[in-house]
Write a structure and sequence with these properties.
196 residues; mainly alpha; 2 domains
């Protein structure tokens, strides 16, 4: 039984560009610009990915995404050429928001980086149709994982399933955010206990 658990943890996970985008946008939301990876982030994002991954796998993926961006940034000061080295434009934009210099990022800014932030932060402005396409892909992945033949499901039933899926997704996001806040609070308590 223990051998099964170890082999399951070592199974390679095939990262899709959708997973990479999910990781990066949630990392930016969770940790902010130049943020650090933490186990709390793993708990925050794990349910949003297309499959099960371990903390170690996710940590390695974030490290590699950052390493790829920083290596390309170091080798090329021109963003246009650097952008060509990324197979997915959204991965490049999200990486640039997290690890790029402020002067590199011409995207619009908005205030309200969080409860303790009064400065502006760089964000990607997704068009509504891009958001819709993103969640449409996520819904298709969900259906594939459930092994449903959508051709045999009436349209109105499929729409009901999608609405329920969106409700669950929103509830999961709320849960993960509250859970991350709780873990952060517990971490703060531990730090104060260790100092005492």
């Amino acid at each position: 039984m223990e051998e099964e658990k170890e082999s399951k943890e070592k199974m390679p996970f095939r990262w899709s560009s959708t997973d990479e985008c999910t990781i990066l946008e949630n990392f930016y939301e969770f940790a902010g610009k130049n943020g650090n990876y933490s186990k709390a982030f793993y708990h925050f994002v794990k349910g949003k990915l297309s499959g099960e991954v371990s903390n170690s796998q996710l940590s390695t993926k974030v490290y590699r995404l950052r390493k790829r961006f920083m290596k390309n940034k170091r080798n090329d000061n021109n963003n246009n050429n650097m952008r060509e080295k990324f197979p997915d434009e959204k991965v490049f934009e999200l990486s640039r928001n997290i690890w790029g210099d402020d002067q590199e990022n011409p995207k619009s800014t908005i205030g309200g980086g969080g409860p303790s932030s009064s400065s502006s932060i760089n964000i990607i402005q997704w068009k509504p149709e891009e958001v819709e396409r993103f969640y449409e892909k996520r819904f298709k992945i969900f259906l594939e994982n459930m092994k449903l033949d959508v051709t045999s499901i009436p349209t109105h039933v499929l729409e009901d399933v999608r609405k329920e899926w969106e409700d669950v997704r929103r509830a999961r996001n709320d849960y993960e955010l509250k859970n991350a806040d709780l873990l952060e609070e517990i971490s703060d308590i531990r730090c104060t206990q260790n100092v005492s």
